[in-house]
Input
Amino acid sequence: MLKPRIIPCLDVKDGRVVKGINFINLVDAGDPVEQAKHYNDCGADEICFLDIEATKDNKKTMIDVIKKTADQVFIPLTIGGGIRSVEDIREILLAGADKVCINTAGILEPKLIRDAADRFGNQCIVVAVDFKFINNKWEVYSHGGTQKTGLDAVKWIREIENLGAGELLLTSMDRDGTKLGFDIEFLNNIRSLINLPIIASGGAGKLGDFEEAIEKGGASAVLAASVFHFGLIKIPEVKEYLIAKNIPMRI
Amino acid sequence: MNLKVIIVDYGLGNIRSVQKSVENIFLKSDIKGEVVISSTTSGMKDATHYILPGQGAFKSCIDGLKKLDGMIEELSDQVLLNKKPILGICVGMQLFAEQSFENGVHKGLGWIKGEVLKLPKKNLCLPHMGWNEIKCLNDHPITLGILSSHFYFVHSYYFNAKISKNILATSNYGIEFPSFVVDKNIFGVQFHPEKSSDAGQALLSNFLIQK
Output
């Protein structure tokens, strides 16, 4: 059977890995290629790089990082950050990535999601949604979580499905960096409405959080950054824990 | 003996990762050789092994292959007459089928009996994407060390091989479907060994020692 995936996420800036607490306070945590190798050796099921400062110069650096990583690490690689066009996506996939993650550009121009899925297949189009619970509803944020969009997250996610995306990366900004666990209520809400695989993100702090995201939230994959980078939780530990809870894992 | 592996490039597919994962084997194991990407028939005859990758829709893959001047004829000579090993990956493997029912009916190479069908939905997400295990049904040296390993899958269609001895392994997603097929020197995998970490590297190594 298909196994839930554990995905370490590496925020990349200037070709180096960093992780912000609540999207600020960046701390340098190393070389992306070495990190990716390390995570592959630990049993990560997929690796995600988010280019958090995707300027033009930086894009070239990122393509270089993707190439170097994909040439040495043979597991699926997802790339997000600063993707604005079908051409950007093509360049990233040609460098060796397997999927791209679209966020702000999809909000500004939803057609990009459809065009990208038509051209490259929906399996490589992940759409990321950063959301916050405000005034009794979940609202979408864009531009790396800095701008309120006024979009209702549930409505936007329905539209994403209709546009032909292949997967959702749902990040709770309320939980991101807090280690208080994932927003299970939201995940579960989306699971019951949407038939796309969901990657749960934002809030991993303890082993039980991973179990909750999969069992109660219905996530197909769980993504985390700081708990892995700073060694608070190790991927083999997560997998052993989940197997003990009768959730099958790839080992 | 130094191997020469040719990856057939018909404009679709995960060529770079396939090449790099074979290079990695040459770098780290006793198996030595070179791996080249080719979209022409020149030098095809000198190869010891062929890899046929594939991504996207069946029709665009078979059309892409047909567009390469003389490629299908040359591949057929090397594989069917000279019996050189070939590995089809994902849609590359599906091309071995007699026909595919992906968006219409399309003729395949017809090297292995069977047809390409859509996976039943049954409340499951399509494409079937992620890590799944294989279950080996028939003994073969190419499955050495990976009898029940996990591999990375991304697909919505599967190769329904007709003859049971052609099915090396199956996987389960709603239904039990053939995920590893064989007919003598012709090998096909539905999953992506180039994205399947150590198990994928083991499979590619096993393929490279096929003669």
